[in-house]
Amino acid sequence: MPEQRTSPRRAEDRAGDKDRAGDKDRAGDNDRAGDDDNDEDEDGDQNEGRDGGGRFGRPGRPLRRSPFLVGFTFGLGLVLAYAAFLAVRNAASVLVLIFIALFLAIGLHPAVVRLRSWGLPRGLAVATVALTVVLLLCGGIVALVPPLVSQSAQFLDQLPHYLDELRRSQTINDLVERYHLADRLSSAANAQTVGRALGGVLGGARLIFGTLFSVLTVLVLTIYFLAAFDQIRRLGYALAPASRRERVRLIGDEILDKVGAYMVGALSIAVLAGGSTFVFALVVGLGYPFALAVVVAVTDLVPQIGATIGAVIVSVVGFASSWRVGVACVVFFVIYQQIENYLIYPKVMRRSVKVNDVSAIVAALLGVSLFGVIGALVAIPAVAALQLIMREVLLPRQQSR
Question: Does the UniProt entry include the keyword Membrane (predicted)?
């Protein structure tokens, strides 16, 4: 059988195929070895996870907010809140004056609107209302100051006569000797007592000038608020979202109208009380009837308690004149207050702000206990505003749920 010969090219091809097969086997062995290593690593990681990740386990995800940043933000908020509290406390007196001026401007704005409806320009309408307020204030001062000055001067003129009468009184002399009042007075008349008396005089003068400054400040601010009332109102409405701005404007205008109606009603009741007092003082012969009428009208602006304060002042003046006149004053004010509290006041307030009697009484009591006289003045308009907000905002929202 003849011997078969292999060509050199075929031998080379078979050698290359063997080399390539060897390379593939070695690559496969390396891949399997790598897979075995990876499996061992994963088994090790799982064993470490089961064992606690080394000693303390795997670290978790990083926090979104640093605890230091949270604590710093909280502390900064506390500091800013306390600073705001200190600012409000230190500026409380000025803020009260601003609030009173704004409340008066809201109450006087219907008069400006009425004058503008008659054809007056806005500037002239504001000037007319402001001048009327100034004239009323000056009239009240003119009515009150002369009686106070004349009565004080009369008391000082009669003081020596009163002292002589006291010295001649046997009863007074017995009391002086029994309780050693002369020695006590002489021992009390030292430098410290004189200094305290002068301090009291200076404190009284400071109170008077401070009151005048506050009145002038409120008057000037009221005029400015009246002049810029429309701009302030538009700015306030612009703070509301655009989607709800129209509804906020309608509710806000209704609240402002209620405040103005309350001011008109309260002024009407006060003028009626002052006029009735003036007529009564003329009939019974009380001194300074116009001054007493001004006192009653001003105190009657305070709900619930103002009329009683005015009645007490006039009754004291009446008893100082004679006991018959004092009794007549007490009877007159008892009857008038019953008519005002149960007939005039509820009818006027029901027509102006539409607040029932129970709400008005409770609001006035709460206002006096929380904020004093200012709280009593704004209590009824505040209740009217709250009733409107509940009726138009809160109750429909509850019904829709």
Answer: yes
For residues 34 and 54, give the distance between their C-alpha atoms in angstroms, rounded to a whole number: 24
User: Looking at residue 26, what is its pLDDT?
Assistant: 52
- Round the CA-based radius of gyration of the chain to a whole number and report it: 44
Residues 328, 139: Cα–Cα separation, whole Å: 28
- How far is Cα 259 from Cα 256, in angstroms, rounded to an integer? 5
Task: State the DSSP string of 301-338.
Answer: TSTTTHHHHHHHHHHHHHHHH-HHHHHHHHHHHHHHHH
Does this model's pTM top 0.85? My answer is no
Q: Which of 381, 373, 368 is nearest to 96 (CA)?
A: 373
Quote the tokens at residue 334. Answer: 């008892």
Query: What share of the chain in percent tops pLDDT 90?
Result: 15
3-class SS of residue 66? coil
Of 322, 319, 295, nearest in space to 309 by CA = 295
d(CA 360, CA 380): 6
